[in-house]
């Protein structure tokens, strides 16, 4: 029996039936909840830019890149699931976070590099989701305005106001103590993500069926007609970042796996959940990206539900954007909780005697019932939400921001660390056939990430040159 569980039982703190092998409260996650977490994390705002990304790449390279990113994400995520426990993937010691797994397998130096990459990415995603939700909330108002006054009406909305509303909601939800309390939220968010993806898909099919000529090509936007040669290169690079962002979830995989029951083994369940999650999202991505391109051609908007790619039926557009907002309200928490846990554990270990930091009590809330309240959690998490909202207000650039986040996170978090940990665990030699293949994969993905980052930075620079913060548009 592990020492932690024995001590808890001896002190009367819990029945052994209520704790896992590490002494923590027994985990209750299942294949269904893990799959919901993954779908919530993967099918996010990235799906909205895929029609634009395919338009930059064309009919041949676009779908090929989508499938390639899907296979790489699935393969590397499968490797990562075996790293939840160390050194044995079934009976080893648990790693509660992605960074913890890296430290267990690769040591402190790479752990610090991983933590920097992971938390920069997580912060970026929460900012990106704030931007996307505000745009979708504004799109509902614009859609109704266009319906009443015509498509040429100057229907202006304030993204700043919508970001404030979103931030207020997140301040409340951020008081949930940890990841284990998010199962219901993730299930709702997963349903929402599939719903708005299906709406976008249905609208694309309806637009195609309705006729009308749109120009599509095998190689995407045409140099000299749609864009200049330089713009074609930068947009191609940025589209890689947008697609990489669409598959970004490896940075929370270990945290999701830590919610699973210990029987059957977590890695086996998580591999199944990864296959379900990635295959489901790839199906939607292929359909939304390709049919979106078929509907709009080389003029596909950056966000096909808010672009404005569609105007009618306005009520269906509204439902789609409301679903986006609900989904990203939950997805924000999936990505923010690891940040909260990391910072709070660090501060509590740094100041073990501080009463404000460590105080927590149970309060009764009508309808909700008993809820653990911490003054420190309230103050710091509220401050975090406010800061991310302020950054989103200053840089509300949907496509460029998503592309940059995807580019910065894809190689280190999706590919490099899972590959390196697997090589360590399986004791694969650098110069063996498997070692050479894995190193080649990692190197190729590094090049893709660098190119995607360059394209997104160039897009941000261009956008900033003509932007005035906090304006109504």
From TrEMBL:
Cell compartment(s), UniProt: Cell membrane
Entry-linked InterPro entries: AA_transpt_TM (IPR013057)
The keyword Transmembrane helix appears for this protein: yes
Coiled coil: none
Recorded superkingdom: Eukaryota
GO terms under cellular component: plasma membrane
Residues covered by the Amino acid transporter transmembrane domain: 28-461
GO MF annotation list: symporter activity
Keywords: Amino-acid transport, Cell membrane, Membrane, Symport, Transmembrane, Transmembrane helix, Transport
Transmembrane spans: 31-52, 59-80, 119-140, 182-206, 273-294, 314-335, 378-395, 401-419, 440-465
Family in the record: Belongs to the amino acid/polyamine transporter 2 family. Amino acid/auxin permease (AAAP) (TC 2.A.18.2) subfamily.
Protein name, per record: Amino acid transporter transmembrane domain-containing protein
Species this protein is from: Rhynchospora breviuscula
Organism ancestry: Eukaryota, Viridiplantae, Streptophyta, Embryophyta, Tracheophyta
């Amino acid at each position: 029996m592990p020492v932690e569980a024995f001590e808890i039982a001896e002190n009367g703190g819990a029945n052994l039936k209520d704790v896992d092998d590490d002494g923590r409260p027994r985990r209750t996650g299942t294949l269904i909840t893990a799959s919901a977490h993954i779908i919530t994390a993967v099918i996010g705002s990235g799906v909205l830019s895929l029609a634009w990304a395919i338009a930059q790449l064309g009919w041949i390279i676009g779908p090929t890149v989508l499938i390639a990113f899907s296979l790489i994400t699935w393969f590397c995520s499968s490797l990562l699931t075996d790293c939840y426990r160390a050194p044995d993937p079934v009976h080893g010691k648990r790693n509660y976070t992605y960074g913890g797994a890296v430290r267990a397998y690769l040591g402190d130096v790479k752990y610090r590099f991983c933590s920097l990459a992971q938390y920069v990415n997580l912060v970026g995603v929460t900012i990106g989701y704030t931007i996307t939700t505000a745009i979708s909330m504004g799109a509902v108002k614009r859609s109704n305005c266009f319906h009443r006054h015509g498509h040429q009406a100057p229907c202006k909305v304030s993204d700043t106001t919508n970001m404030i509303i979103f931030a207020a909601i997140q301040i409340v939800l951020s008081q949930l103590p940890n990841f284990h309390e998010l199962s219901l939220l993730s299930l709702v968010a997963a349903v929402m993500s599939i719903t708005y993806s299906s709406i976008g898909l249905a609208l694309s099919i309806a637009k195609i069926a309705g006729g009308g000529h749109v120009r599509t090509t095998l190689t995407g936007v045409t140099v000299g007609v749609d864009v200049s040669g330089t713009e074609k290169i930068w947009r191609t690079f940025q589209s890689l970042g947008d697609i990489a962002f669409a598959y970004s979830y490896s940075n929370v995989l270990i945290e999701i796996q830590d919610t699973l029951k210990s029987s059957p083994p977590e890695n086996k369940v998580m591999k199944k959940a990864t296959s379900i999650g990635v295959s489901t999202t790839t199906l939607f991505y292929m359909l939304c990206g390709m049919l979106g391109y078929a509907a709009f051609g080389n003029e596909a908007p950056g966000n096909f539900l808010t672009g404005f790619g569609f105007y009618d039926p306005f009520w269906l557009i509204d439902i789609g954007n409301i679903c986006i907002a609900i989904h990203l309200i939950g997805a924000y928490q999936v990505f923010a909780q690891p940040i909260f846990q990391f910072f709070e554990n660090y501060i509590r270990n740094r100041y073990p005697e501080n009463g404000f930091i460590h105080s927590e009590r149970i309060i009764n809330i009508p309808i909700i019932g008993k809820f653990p309240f911490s003054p420190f959690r309230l103050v710091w998490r509220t401050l975090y939400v406010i800061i991310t909202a302020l950054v989103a207000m200053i840089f509300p650039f949907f496509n460029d921001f998503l592309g940059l986040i995807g580019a910065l996170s894809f190689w280190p978090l999706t590919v490099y660390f899972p590959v390196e940990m697997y090589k360590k665990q399986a004791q694969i030699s650098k110069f063996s056939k498997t070692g050479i293949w894995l190193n080649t994969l990692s190197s190729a993905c590094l090049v893709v990430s660098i190119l995607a980052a360059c394209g997104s930075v160039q897009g941000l620079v261009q956008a900033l040159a003509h932007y005035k913060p906090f304006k109504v548009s």
